[in-house]
Amino acid sequence: MPPGLAVVGADGGHLRQVINLHQEGDYQVNAGPDNGVTREESRLERAPRRPPKEARDVVARPETGARTDWFPTSVWRFNVADHQALNEKLMRFIQDDRQRNPGGMSGRSTVMGWHSTDQLHRRPELREFVAIVHDNIAEVARFYRIDTNQASLELATCWAIVNGKMASGAVHCHPNSFLSGVYYVNTTQETGNIFFQDPRPGPNMAMCPVTEFTPWTVRQVSYQPTPGGMLIFPSWLYHGVGPNLCETPRVSLSFNFRLKWTSNL
After folding, report:
1. 218-245 per-position pLDDT tens digit
2. CA–CA separation, 21 vs 35, rounded Å?
3. At residue 12, does pLDDT exceed 50?
């Protein structure tokens, strides 16, 4: 896996992240939820500038080295089966909760949107959803090889966000958590993508000019969500949400898992 962000399918399979690559201030990859194109099969859009003539004239010699990718940042993607019926229940629940508490929680990452309280996982109406979350988190946790004699993962917080037109999400991470995730209840192509930023400070110190953008040179990955999709990622990974450019509300449920340490007493 590359040292940058890797989008891993629910089966833990190959990297499936590149649909289109373009430059708008930051380097950016658009990673769609339904594309079946692996990095090896796709073509990256080339930068407008060509390399210098002397570089083009160099005859490439056979590769003799071996590359090892260290410190990968993985994001897991899941698609919930039969999500339509589940999402109808979740929409009714979130709408009712918003009517009961129109102010929601303030001081959070959402900008101009509504943020519910963060203990929704304790509500009996979300029992089915919470079970799905636990199953997916268990799959992700196996990759970490957590020593269960010392710690386990505990669902700490869960909340809903409703972004109306022009609402967005400020760049943030999730302190005091280990794994975080988001499930999409209602989205369209215009309701706002989630984007992730390269967590490595080093590459931003000296960005080189490139003739072709690759996962090693991008600095931001944008993901277009669809209803029924779920992302799980390390809580320290900075991310944000683009503005909703349509009248359709963008509705999602987010959650945090923390490490629960085994007492030695």
Report:
1. 899 999 999 999 999 999 999 999 999 9
2. 14
3. no
Q: What is the pLDDT of residue 29?
A: 52
3-state secondary structure 7-23: EECCCCCCECCCCEEEE
**Exposed (0-12), middle (13-18) or buried (19+): which is 11, by Cβ within 10 Å?**
exposed
Q: Which residues contact 39 (CB under 8 A, 6 or more apart)?
A: 14, 15, 16, 17, 18, 215
pTM for the model stands at 0.78
**Helical residues (DSSP H) of 75-124, grouped into ranges:** 83-100
CB 105 within 8 Å of CB 83: no
Residues 6+ apart with CB under 8 A from 25: none
- Fold designation for 5-44+72-261: Jelly Rolls (2.60.120)
- Neighbouring C-alpha atoms within 13 Å toward the C-beta of 237: 26
What's the pLDDT at 47? 43
Q: Name the β-bridge partners of 258.
A: 154
Lowest mean pLDDT among 29-43, 90-104, 241-255: 29-43
pLDDT at position 53: 56
Confidence grade of residue 49 (pLDDT, cut at 50, 70, 90): low
- Residue of 200, 199, 196 lying closest to 182 (CA atoms): 196
- Which DSSP letter does residue 24 get? E
